[in-house]
Amino acid sequence: MMANIDSQTTDLLRFGPLGKMNLTSKEQVTPHKISLLVLIYEYCELKKKQNQPFIFGQNVLDPEERISENEKRDFMTLILKLLQSPDLSLRDLLDQTQSILKPKIFDEFTDRLKEFYEEDILPLTDFFQELHRMLSEPIAPEMPVISSNSVLGLFFRRMILMFDSLSFSQVTALYNQFKHYYEEVNVPHQIDESENFGGSLMDSITKETERLTCSALGRESSHYGLGPMKSESGGYFSHKQAEYFISRQGFLLQHNEKEAMSPKELQTQISSMLQSNPALAEAHFLSYMNNLRVKEYCNALHNLFHCFDRNTNFSDDSITNKTVEEDVSRRYASLNLAGLHFRFGHKEEALTALQEAIRMAQETNDHVCLQHALSWLHRIEDSGNARTANLIARSVDKSEELSLPNITSLSVQALARHNAFSTAKPSSVMEYTLKSDVLNCQHSQPHFMCVSYAQKSALWHMYGKQESSSMCSQLVLNLDTSEGGIYHNGEAVCLALCNLARIFAEEGNYMLALEVINNAKQRFPPQTQHAHLWMTYEQEIMFDRSLLSLRDELASQALSGLHALDEDEYKLRSGIFKMEKGDVSSSQTILRKLKEHVQANVHKFSPEFPCRVMLAMADLYIQTGNHVSATSQILECITSAKEHHLDYTHSLAAVYLAFVQLLMELPEKALTLLDQHMVTVLSHGNCLDRARTLYCYARCTVAAGSKLPKADRKSSLLLAVKLMMNVIELFNKLEAHMRVKDATYYLARLYNELGYNDERNKCAYDFRQLDSVFPTNSRTAVLRL
Question: Full-prediction pTM beyond 0.85?
């Protein structure tokens, strides 16, 4: 065992004159390929009988034995899949073919395999002679079943050529491998010569048998240069099978990770592939991508180094005869290394690797590599400054000049995001996103279209346009992104689903929100690289719902889950949670430190997040009766919102300011302020904000009407009653029991002042029922908005 490990380690670190030797395995005859040859042969024999003209007196095929067009299509699709896949065990092969094949073909197939197993080498050699005759039959008077230039014909010719080149000892080793391969399904002592073989094989498929290994098979075949046929790590890969497997899994990892193999299974297949093809650099790069998805830094770095080591010539003449491919490999190795360090938060290391790539690209005037490096540079640099904007603008212009639509599209979107965070007008920001959409449509880039719509959804959410944000998220999910039969299922799709779930939850439709989150769970299982997105949104939705319904234990659990996913969001919600429980000092400490952190690293946050922190602090000061400090936080929030054109945040902050004015006994000014901003909140706000705004408006209306004549005062009270009924309905929808209790109490007082005793008594009863289940444990909660 240790000898095998040492030999593999020596190969991985092999440099010097043999560094570029082609160690990739050639096509080999294996038991699995022999089974495929038998399968295709028996199918062709039945098809040949089916194509023969009808002659009276000769045996004809039964109608049930004739092959339909749908069955031909299924068989050809299966054979193509098997040719491109690594070697399978006989049990797996039978499981895949039994439902596709005609019973007659399946019986002939199993009988032929039994004959190979029982009658030694001679039937095997005769079978290859029969294959040779099948391909060499004259075309006239009828066309052959298999053309020698077709996919199956080329497969037959390669296998015949490889079998004819084997020595007698190698043929013997191949036969011994076939025996082990066959005995996995049919154990020798269970075979009865008097019984029908086909029946025993059919029974062996449906019954569980003991798991057998083929370690001796690999040891025996290695002496004859045949390579391992089946090991614990997976099947044998030829060079073409390995290339197809790498391209397929790489495509799936980029476009639809769910359809790709799980990280553990994929790494097992890659290990098996490297046993058969130790010099295949692309296999190491696929392993690098597989480690990135599970955030395994050490193995990802290890595989990235080995990938580009195998693309480098270390022979003696390499100093003077460097090929263009090797220079390109070094440049893009540095680019990938920079991307790896950036992904794991190693900013200085990423900049160092990127500068090395830029230096090598400048030496050879590689403008394409320079554009890739420039697009990485403006992403690694601190965002929000003039230098970053200049880098992005240069990237857009040069990429468009070099006809690099993918880099151009991403750079335009990056410029739109930069401008949105840098106080640009929303109209100019959306104009840039429109240019990106046009570019994506012109070059058929559905992946970048999803990214563009997801970013527009985030921008609309930041500006407070809820319906526009929802529409863009739905467009992401309804785009036709099919490519090669695989629909794009990346980060943009996950963000769109999470955004819709958040919108449903904010409207009190918690069941619909959980259904959308469950859909995201199915699309992005926990081991995928984008699963942290729906995990974060799930914890946020659970926290908001638990906080409103006074389930402190569930809210605390949600906070614990959020702590591992989003540190800043955890701190903000932790401060709100402490405030709701009445722990004012802890809440104030958490929110003050968070605000200082945000101000020190303002470029890392969206403009909306600092405003949320300020409003949370304002809410805390309101509940503690510190109106001056609350006003200071609200005005600071309004200033920031105006600067970044956050209309909804500005209106929400104005509602807070109106509530402070109400508490300071200035209801007329509060009403004037609410009249200016209430339409924005009611049009674009969530259920909670709408209810709080209506509640504040009702209280301001009643307070301002206290100085009016009796008739006008009654009309203001009736208006307040109508508003409070809407408020209670909205709070009930959100399961905000404590807020329902407060609103019911206020409504009872309104009915009492109007003299509606029956309605007052009903509200008083509802209040007592709610108070018995949800008592008020904190004085500060009474003064909240």
Answer: no
